[in-house]
Write a structure and sequence with these properties.
The chain is built from four helices and two strands, in the order H-E-E-H-H-H. Helix 2 packs across helix 3 and helix 2 packs across helix 4. Strand 1 and strand 2 form a beta hairpin. By secondary structure, the chain is of the alpha+beta class. The chain is globular and about 45 Å long. It has a single domain, classed as Ribbon-helix-helix fold. About 55% of the residues lie in helices and about 15% in strands. The longest helix has 16 residues.
Length: about 100
Amino acid sequence: MCEIYAGQDPERYRPINRSVRIGGHSTSIQLEAAFWLLIDQIAGEQGFTTAQFLSKLYDEALEINGSVSNFSSLLRTSCLIYSARREPVTPIAVAAE
């Protein structure tokens, strides 16, 4: 089973830094390449550039929660939510011990 995860292309988990403006301030965000691909896809589907999407997401999270303590983690978990809603998880049969 770990072969599925361990055997993935190392490019997928290569860290990538992007500089963006959020709330009028320049900042750098480091995420793995696979997350950036999903964020670019989400932004495009919403009709935004990636920078516009990141800024809007930050502003909305700030409005809802009062603060955004770890924006990179918010982005990663947003990707998980996006993926889960697009591809239903198929239950895996567990063999009896």
